[in-house]
Each structure stands twice: as C-alpha cells, then as structure tokens.
C-alpha cells in the first residue's frame, strides 16, 4: 500500500494501537499528525517515529473530544501539508463499572471522548475533504464488545456499537464526495496498558481460538488497508479483528 504524500490524523496515538498505526503510515510514505491527550507522550511518540530523520510525524497534543483540539488538528493538517486525506479516530477511554452503581460522571466521560469527540472530528474532517473534492477515508475504532456482551462494560460497549452505526449511517452522506467510512473492532490486544495486567496474555491466549491475543500490528495492518486506495469501494463496514473470540465468546472468568 502506497501512502506517499497522503496526510493523516490519528488520535489517541501516544502508545499502543494508535502509535503503531502512525508508525506504519509514515513507513508507507504518509505525513501524520499524531494526537494524544498526554503532551510529553505525544511528543516522545512523534520523535521516536521521526528517529530515521524523515520528520513526517507531528505531535498535536490535547483532548480529542474538545472542539479547540479538533479544529487545531484539522487546521494544522491544512497549514503544514495543504490538506487532509485520512482520519483514524482511535482515541477512547474505558471506565469499567457495575451497571447498578455506574456514576453519571463516568458515563459522561465515556460518552464525550468515545462518541462526541469521534463524531465532531469526523464532521470537521469530512467538511475539509468535501471542500478539497478529492475524497478521503475515515476510520472509527470500535471493539468486540460492540458485538458481544462483557461484564462491567455497558457504557463503553454502547459507545462502540454506536460508532459502527455511525460508520454505516455516514455512507449516505459522505459517498457522494468519495469519502469512505469504516470501523475496526479489535479484540483483546497486547499494548503497554494491557500488559500491566500480569496474566492478560495468558488468559486471552487460553480463550482466543487462534491461541493468542492480537498484536498492535494486527490492528494497524487492518486499519491501513481500510484507509488505503485499495479499499475505496469498501464503506459502511465493521471489521472484527479478534482471533475468533466473538465466535466463542468465552470470558476470562470462564477459565
């Protein structure tokens, strides 16, 4: 896949899946605006990607659910690189909690980042892509829990299912402008955060049919395909990348 001279925004990309997506995009020729809420993390991530001296990755720190940051990302893409071709809406938060005691504060935080931020960044990006007249690609980051129930994730799961419906619905409004929009639904994935749970890899290897959780490269490679020119006729779809977990749906407590 060739992303030479393509301009991309990736949110929530200081580490984990988002960072891997940025790394691979740059390796394939793209110019990337890397966003993370943690300023030092965003700057360190961009510096690491630019270690080869290509300078193709720029850190744009800030909360991706805030309009000032959303506008800054899109404006920076235009100012620095002259346009915007790809947006991968990866930023999201997970706040576990029992349904009976889940708080309003937790609910609103999850909705703001996972839904409102994704919706309005997609809107701002689509406006720019429509103005450019050359099309583009939007990719939402969903989750297997948007397909299959998981205890203590009711609020988070509903946001992920909603993002997949948003991708499907936007087909009607964005296809006339040659903007395709899809979603990726990762299953259990080894990241810096999940590996802090000492037995995470062991547990998910035991309950995943393919015998291991996903690596960040599994998700990044899927994402790259869906925003590439090779996938321009794929739109409104959600692709599950979970090693077969949703086919059996065993939970960690089932061991």
What does it look like?
The protein has a single domain (7-187, 217-238), classed as 3-Layer(aba) Sandwich (Rossmann fold), CATH 3.40.50.720. Helices cover 44% and strands 16% of the residues. It has eight helices and nine strands. It has helices spanning 16-27, 39-49, 67-81, 104-132, 154-174, 200-207, 216-226, 245-248; strands spanning 7-10, 31-36, 57-61, 86-89, 136-141, 179-186, 189-190, 214-215, 238-241. The protein has a seven-stranded parallel β-sheet with strand order 3-2-1-4-5-6-9, sandwiched between helices. A two-stranded parallel sheet has the order 7-8. α1 packs across α7 (216-226), α3 (67-81) runs parallel beside α4 (104-132) and α4 (104-132) packs parallel to α5 (154-174). The N and C termini lie far apart (40 Å). The mean pLDDT is 94.
Beta-strand portion reads 15-25%
Architecture, according to CATH? 3-Layer(aba) Sandwich
Total helix count? Answer: 8
For CATH, the homologous superfamily is named as NAD(P)-binding Rossmann-like Domain
Residue share in helix? 40-55%
The biggest sheet, with number of strands, parallel, antiparallel or mixed sense and barrel status, is: 7 strands, parallel
Oligomer: single chain
Low-confidence stretches: none
Structural class: alpha/beta
Strand arrangement within the widest β-sheet reads 3-2-1-4-5-6-9
CATH C-level: Alpha Beta
Enter the CATH topology name: Rossmann fold
**Straight-line N-to-C gap:** 40 Å
Order of helices and strands: EHEHEHEHEHEEHEHEH
Shape: globular
Overall average residue pLDDT? 94
How many strands in all?
9
Question: How large, in whole angstroms, is the Cα Rg?
Answer: 17 Å
The tally of domains stands at 1
